[in-house]
Specification:
heterodimer; A: about 500 residues; mainly alpha; Sodium/glucose cotransporter; about 0% strand; B: mainly alpha; two-stranded antiparallel sheet; 2 helices; 2 strands
């Protein structure tokens, strides 16, 4: 009963923040969708770190480490570099061109850059197709927590999360989603850190070295590659890092760049990514999955059971009140990620599909209305898909979602950094990569035993570059708007 | 990134980051050794911490001393 009261209060706190966001919002499309481009460096850090750190960091990530040993952390190292690269290399120019031309969606930026409505349609549909199922995984993650802790059916936790999500995004828009991520992120980080300290003190008086010694004696394969199941050869580890590097192309992270208040954010932001993201935050679930859980609860071989291993340990061995706090942390992680993904999806739906194709003269009020309807539709669709096609979280993220997001990477990087990139190059590269990915996921031998990202993105990049060189350069007007004016703006202090 | 390619400091910065990625890929061949640093840090974690430290130092030097838009 106490748990249910705490969860209700937690939900009410989020809803109050959403209502406050609605009250102070400017009711313009730019304000609702991009927080009025006013996000500073600290809010941006929480916004992005906890947009990235979904319930996957509590379930899928430690679960995979538990089964396969420590090499999977290379995905995190790649991701840290990928996020930093987004803010160091692409961020200033993407932010500047969007601000100068009042672009609201990153897809809109590329459609204008390549002067192609067809590309806008392709990119919008592609991003929505890959992001929607991932949104649905978050409520299901909470459902797992509800089941483990309270014994309630998974759907109860999923619906609780969906209600919070829909109200938060409908009322608050991007600004409150970003602000609420400070609250949610603090809960999640403290739950992870607290559970880690508690677990080490309770089970390993000699510290983490004692846990490592135990593994060395009983299950030494968990301390090295390729891991107990032989999965992580050097080639696979390298591929895993490359997959992580593609994090710069995650659309819900890219759109965050466009909410920045000024260019100084790009100078300060990476320091937070490296120190608090790379060294501190992601090391916690790593220690849980690769050291603590395998010693406390060895022998789990089922993938889905491994996904829940941290939750299971906490439920069985920790005090009840602490388990409730950790569940709040999981809800916080799920809501913080899914809210940003939902916002991104609704922006693309309303701005790129509705305003871009159906109602070009739509007012701000109408666009916001479409975005809100999209939120409801997307959340229902995503939940249905993820319930119907359940799969292990770690695998879904790295095998399907990331390769899908990666297919707009070459057009994005080329569009922002390379004058010579052309519409035909972007279209051919993106379509070829996408078709190859779908074919490869259906018939795996087409991928030659490689991770889906590798061959598909290589084909995508090659075609983008070759076709760009074979077709006429972009017009002078486009080159001026996307390069010369951006240079002047960024150099102007 | 365009601005980084226009001066030596930027080019050195990019080379350092690139070499660190190559280094990360190179060291994977040693991960079959069951070695723990400081009693508990496995090699994939240790190499990543070094990697992040290299990126952090390179970024601090470049962005606070040489970045044209600073």
């Amino acid at each position: 009963m106490a748990a249910i009261i705490v969860l209700i209060l937690f939900g009410i706190a989020i809803l109050i923040m959403a209502a406050y966001g609605y009250k102070i919002s400017a009711k313009t499309a730019e304000d609702y969708m991009l927080a009025g481009r006013t996000i500073g460096v600290v809010v941006m850090f929480f916004f992005i770190l906890f947009a990235v750190s979904s319930s996957w960091t509590f379930y899928g990530y430690p679960g995979h480490l538990y089964l396969h040993g420590p090499a999977y952390i290379y995905f995190i190292w790649g991701s840290v570099a990928g996020f930093a690269a987004l803010y160091m290399f692409l961020g200033p120019r993407l932010w500047a061109v969007a601000r100068l031309n009042r672009y609201i969606s990153p897809v809109e930026v590329l459609a204008e850059r390549y002067d192609s409505k067809f590309l806008r349609l392709i990119l919008s549909l592609m991003i929505l197709a890959f992001i929607v199922p991932y949104v649905g995984i978050q409520p299901l993650g909470v459902g797992l927590g509800f089941k483990a802790l309270l014994g309630l059916p998974i759907i109860v936790g999923a619906l609780y999360t969906v209600v919070l999500l829909v109200i938060l995004v409908l009322l608050g828009g991007m600004r409150i989603v970003a602000w609420v991520n400070i609250f949610l992120g603090s809960i999640y980080a403290s739950a992870l850190l607290g559970s880690l300290i508690w677990g080490v003190n309770r089970f390993f008086p000699g510290g983490l070295a004692e846990a490592a010694q135990n593994l060395m004696a009983n299950n030494p394969e968990l301390l090295s590659a390729p891991g107990p199941l032989g999965r992580y050869s050097p080639v696979i580890i390298g591929g895993t890092m490359v997959v992580g590097l593609m994090a710069f192309s995650w659309p819900h992270i890219v759109i965050g760049v466009m909410t920045a208040r000024d260019k100084m954010l790009f100078k300060w932001f990476p320091i937070l990514i490296f120190i608090f993201g790379g060294v501190f935050f992601y090391t916690m679930p790593f220690i849980w999955g690769s050291l603590i859980a395998p010693v406390i609860m060895p022998g789990v071989t089922d993938v889905k059971a491994a996904d829940s291993i941290v939750q299971t340990v906490i439920t069985q061995f920790f005090p009840k009140w602490f388990s409730i706090y950790v569940l709040m942390g999981v809800i916080a992680a799920a809501v913080s990620t899914a809210a940003v993904q939902l916002m991104t999806s609704s922006v693309i739906f309303a701005r790129d599909l509705i305003q871009g194709f159906i109602k070009p003269d739509a007012s701000d009020i109408q666009i916001i209305k479409w975005a809100r309807w999209a939120v409801v539709g997307i959340v229902i669709l995503s939940l249905v898909i993820s319930i119907r096609y359940t799969t292990a979280m770690a695998l879904y993220l790295t095998e399907v979602t990331i390769p899908g997001f990666a297919q707009w990477g070459p057009a994005l990087v080329g569009g922002i950094l390379w004058r010579r990139g052309t519409r035909e190059g972007a279209l051919v590269g993106t379509l070829a990569g996408l078709v190859y990915l779908i074919a490869g996921l259906i018939y795996r031998p087409l991928l030659f035993g490689l991770h889906p990202v590798m061959p598909t993105v290589i084909v995508n990049i090659l075609l983008y570059v070759i076709v760009s060189f074979l077709t006429p350069a972009p017009s002078e007007e486009i080159q001026s708007r996307f390069f010369d004016e951006v240079d002047e703006f960024l150099e102007a202090g | 990134m365009r601005e980084m390619l226009k001066h030596n400091a930027g080019r050195v910065f990019l080379i350092v980051l690139f070499l660190s990625i190559v280094g990360m890929l190179f060291v994977t061949r040693f991960f079959s050794h069951k070695i723990v640093v400081f009693g508990w840090i496995t090699l994939p974690l240790f190499s990543g911490l070094i990697f992040v430290a290299v990126w952090l130092v390179a970024y601090l030097i470049y962005f606070f001393k040489f970045w044209p838009y600073r």
